[in-house]
TrEMBL record, chains A, B:
Transmembrane segments: none annotated. Residues 168-353 form the S-Me-THD-like C-terminal domain. This is DUF917 domain-containing protein. InterPro entries: S-Me-THD-like_C, S-Me-THD_C_sf, S-Me-THD_N, S-Me-THD_N_sf.
Length: 362, 362
């Protein structure tokens, strides 16, 4: 157990932008919300999964929709807390612990704001181990759980409760409600007891985001922060280059597109293309896959190592593209079926990051 | 109190196609559902509003979405009854009377099917006195009531409960959920006690639909059925002509468009245009309005007097276009604001049907 400091939250916001560069939204909005809520309602206690009691009731809270919309209409107190209240009412049980559904982007810190507002502790863990663009891409789904109940609220005061037949319908219905509600909502789904949470939650991910933030901010001359990050996350440097053509389009409630980079230094004469649906999903170098979802692909500023979000990427940016292995839960057949390249309609089979680069090691 | 016979249902289906030629859907699907349910579960009792007890709980049940989709996926027993069950659970009260939200199109008979399935009586009355395309176009809204609760179900087993801030948000959110659910859903909204129903319901409209059906089917040589219908509904014959250009497009979940007619007989050398959003909303003759929503416009087969739905209208059809005055509730300022021409973005003020044709009488 520990209390989150203002510094911790600053670092989580930075680290969260590495773990979720798109769909999760701009984590700095999350930082504003979390700091504002703590300032008004008091500090937030973080607990880890070992501290959960079997009969705890753990509820994820997250934002759904387009990050660009969230900036325009910052959620109100009522909107942030209403899905939780509706959830409690529907199941006739009190929530005892809040958790992030994804530690990546704005959704790392929205639940911290809700924890402050309700006085509940926040769990150090999430259901993705990163950010993914769709609602059913969670460890609960991999463990065979259905989202029995989804509660949603907008800033107008509208509430919607969905009882979907499965995770895919949950995604489809909640996505459309989000569109109808103006493009961004607050959502609670996959409420579980402490016993189930201990099984399904990917642990220590808030702390992981915080560590990434710390090493990016607390710079030393000796080792470049990107080097330290690769060590921490067992990742690989994929490509060093300059952003060229960036194609983006809104399709089915997502930002889809691709970003092209021409190589620099060791990568001169090579080209890298990233394909994204909110999050970067596929990286190819000269036509050959070099990283594939569910492994995580991130774009970092060459100079500072700071993450560049999908929305923030601009022509001419000098970047380092890195990749990190997904949590082992994502590398199972159900994990690959749920968030692998073919789910996103890319015509390529998943190969783990390490295996893609085996020849480089040998 | 009376029991609905198979013949009554046949007649209601025909009359309902006069009172709702578009958004309400093909009433013959409703007939199939009602007859099927009665065959399986037993007969349906009709009560009128004087028979309501103050503490009755009256719940409308209706279909939402595109009629063409409904034909493809006839609702199952579960889908028809689930919104009612979800409503009862959410408010902790038992429904005692079913009512149609609109007597027009398929929604006249879907609630009859639900009444058969649940063994509850159906109210002889509705909340429109005709069909209208949007969810908030109901007498409850005119009386200042909010749809506190909207329950929806699809044929997959998905359930959605909406607590909207007002009628317009109810329409917006439930329409999007309907789109996400594949284009057609079963909905319950505006549940009220018997006391409120007595105030707000437009009475005797199931019987009215039945009477229209009877006079169209039980033909005598003496008086043309259209003539009898105009007497019954205090309507006017607007135009006799042949269908020419028909423009239709799907826009925001509705079928919008216009239908052009060239005149025959007394109307030779004239042109009539109908503008529709699911329902016919405006009729113009040579550019001059001759009938305006919320007054009802219907297109009838010249020969038989049988109604032609918006979807069923074809090039070359020889038709008689008629109009009937809306119920007085719709001719109030709030009624005109809710369902008058300007709500539908037509640049013309509402003028009652009788007034538009005053000069013809004088």
């Amino acid at each position: 157990m520990r209390w989150l400091t203002e510094n911790d939250i600053e670092h989580i916001a930075v680290g969260a932008a590495v773990l979720g560069t798109g769909g999760g939204g701009d984590p700095f909005i999350g930082k504003m919300m979390a700091l504002g809520a703590i300032d008004k309602h008091g500090p937030v206690k973080v607990i880890n999964i070992d501290e959960l009691k079997d009969d705890d009731f753990v509820l994820p809270v997250s934002g759904m929709g387009a990050p660009s919309v969230l900036v325009e209409k910052i959620p109100s107190f009522d909107q942030l807390v209403n899905p939780l209240k509706a959830y409690e009412e529907a199941i006739g049980k009190k929530v005892t612990v809040i958790m992030p559904i994804e530690v990546g982007g704005v959704n790392s810190l929205i639940p911290v704001a809700v924890a402050a507002m309700t006085g509940l502790p926040i769990l150090d863990g999430d259901a993705m181990g990163r950010a993914f663009p769709e609602a059913q891409m969670v460890s609960f789904h991999l463990d065979g759980l259905k989202p029995e109940l989804v509660t949603m609220a907008d800033e107008q005061g509208n509430h919607v409760t969905i009882r979907p037949v499965n995770g895919l319908w949950s995604e489809k219905l909640s996505r459309q409600v989000t569109v109808a509600m103006g493009g961004s909502t607050i959502v609670s789904d996959y409420g579980v007891d402490g016993k189930q949470a201990k099984k399904s939650v990917i642990p220590n991910t808030l702390t992981l985001a915080q560590k990434i933030g710390e090493l990016l901010e607390k710079r030393t001359e000796a080792v470049h922060p990107i080097e330290k990050m690769l060590q921490l996350l067992k990742g690989r440097l994929l490509f060093k280059g300059k952003a060229q053509l960036i194609k983006r389009g809104i399709q089915g409630g997502f930002t889809r597109g691709e970003a092209h980079f021409t190589g620099m230094d060791d990568d001169e004469h090579s080209e890298c293309i990233l394909y994204f649906q909110n999050e970067h999903l596929i990286a190819k170098r000269d036509g050959r896959p070099i990283a594939l979802t569910p492994d995580l692909i991130a774009v970092l500023d060459e100079e500072t190592g700071m993450p560049i979000t999908t929305e923030g990427l601009r022509y001419g940016a000098r970047v380092i593209i890195v990749a990190f292995p997904a949590h082992e839960k994502w590398r199972t057949p159900i994990g690959i079926e749920t968030a692998g390249p073919r789910y996103f309609k890319y015509d390529v089979d998943y190969v783990p990051l390490e295996q893609l680069h085996e020849e480089e090691l040998s």
